[in-house]
Amino acid sequence: MLFTLLGVILTCTVTWLYLRWLKVRSFWGKRGVPHEPPHPIFGSLTHLTKINTSKWMIAVYNKYKHKTPYVGIWLFWRPALIVNDPEIGRRVLVKDADVFRDRFLNSGKSDPIGCLNIFSVNDPTWSRVRRHLTPVFTTAKIKHIQNLIAQKSKELVQRIQIESSKNKLIDIRTMFADFSTDIIGTAAFGVKCNATLTGKDPMRSVTKSFQTYSFIRGLNFVSIMFFPELADIFRFSFFPKSATDYFTKIFRAVVKERGGYDKPVEEIKDLLDTLLKMKQNAAKESDFMSEELLIAQATIFVQGAFETSSNTLAVAIYELAYNTEVQEKLYREIVDIKERLGGEDFTVDALADATYLNCVIDETLRKYPPMGWLDRVARKEYQIDENLTIPAGTPVYVNFVGMQVDPDYYPEPQLFKPERFLPEAKGDLTPFTYAPFGEGPRNCIGRRFGQQTVRFGLASVILNYELKPLPNMPLPNDIEFNKNAPFLLVELLHVNFVPRH
Length: 501
Ligand code: HEM
Ligand SMILES: *[C@@H]1O[C@H](CO)[C@@H](O)[C@H](O)[C@H]1NC(C)=O
Ligand SMILES: *[C@@H]1O[C@H](CO)[C@@H](O)[C@H](O)[C@H]1NC(C)=O
Ligand SMILES: CC(=O)N[C@H]1CO[C@H](CO)[C@@H](O)[C@@H]1O
Prior knowledge:
The chain is an alpha+beta fold. It has two domains: 1-30; 31-499, CATH 1.10.630.10. The chain has 22 helices and eight strands. The strands form three sheets. A four-stranded mixed beta sheet has the order 1-2-6-3. Strands 4-5 form a two-stranded antiparallel sheet. The longest helix has 32 residues, at 291-322. The protein binds protoporphyrin IX containing FE and 2-acetamido-2-deoxy-beta-D-glucopyranose (3 copies). Residues 192, 194, 197-198 line the site of one 2-acetamido-2-deoxy-beta-D-glucopyranose.
């Protein structure tokens, strides 16, 4: 009797699941959207344990290139759309940004620091926070960080000197992560960090924990990015708990040191001040912002800044070592700037005007965008084009990493050619085929901050060292990337730093 009952229940469940599956599986076919048949569990995500998602995005792009502007995929059982077309990308990110204001990725509700930060939070909190923060990330407002970045750039040169004198191979990924951690740690949390010189610092221990993409951390990120409900159930978090505990502790201590949450901020000196000011301004509009909300922003500044900037620096230095003409041209520009400054420290303005330096950075971000695809979710039904309307809730990924290496847009995409981005050549580029900082109202809020960090770091190293390849290291196009990391993250890299004088 019992067995019969169990048997009936089982049969019903299996049949129901099967019928659901048939419906899921036919989703894109029914709409005439090109797709690969999904795996019964993972959908289109069967690559996850094998290759980097960025590489996968490039593969999908190349496979469907010129056949179709978009490709249907499944995130497990959820249909999602990859957009490989600049014009549709522009509409999703800019013109119809109101429909696509939210990101799909999300960490569980059990993780306030992870789910309240401006990167992962959705409306209405996102608009509230973004509105207050955008004005303080303008060029003028972040100039006060110039001295900090200039000081850390000098320490970077010292660091290379110290390590070279010990005949040590320099792990450039780690060195630049030490550098970028010092800058963003001090700017966001108001504490002094000394990792550039020493390689060690409490703040650096935290960013190291962010960088260890073990299988489990990788799994965390896969859920957060592609299956947020699972992140909720298993209480996965954006940040390791030890990190958020540490951030909470130092944030409180520094706020206390500055006179508490209610002491009016007169002059904004760093990002922490901007957060305090945001809370105070919101209070004037009877909008209460919790301490957690502030700490979540400071934390995402660290995560959003340190790895993007340090990866960019590492791959730029690596490419320069293998592209001697580019390096020489850059060196001459930097020497000129230094002379024009009368030998004084670089300034934000002088480096912003360094045409070739900026082309080198643009080209680095073309080949190695830290976040190669942009994630949005449709808040209501949306007509993609005359052939396709997607239902509300469909995740959409704009595939810039694919477009950025498409030879039709960037001839010989494997070559490192900063000249593509020279002002006189820029007119030939197809709009919306390049967006390393994202696009539209939800683009990277720290763009200028990141650019400054990278400009100062590169200029200081190039002025003092000639970069040369070392034997037994891979060519730039064979660099390996961590396959558990959600975004492009380089593995161990070494170059030879030869002092210029
Ligand atoms: C080379 C450096 C950097 C690169 C390449 C980069 C790239 C990006 C990209 C592609 C996005 C997604 C944009 C979109 O969806 O349209 C983003 C978002 C974001 N970035 Fe950056 N970033 C960099 C540096 C920074 C820095 C220095 C900070 C903080 C000080 C920062 C903070 C953020 C934040 C908070 C968001 C989320 C914005 C939102 O959702 O409203 N980033 N970044
Ligand atoms: C940073 O480390 C260096 C080298 O160990 C040391 O000389 C210097 O005093 C430290 N600076 C701070 C602010 O702790
Ligand atoms: C819609 O589909 C038709 C038939 O496949 C195709 O010729 C047309 O170019 C498509 N329209 C757009 C905007 O892609
Ligand atoms: C396709 C591809 O290049 N995948 C790389 C992803 O990262 C792993 C680990 O570094 C590499 O081994 C793969 O080659």
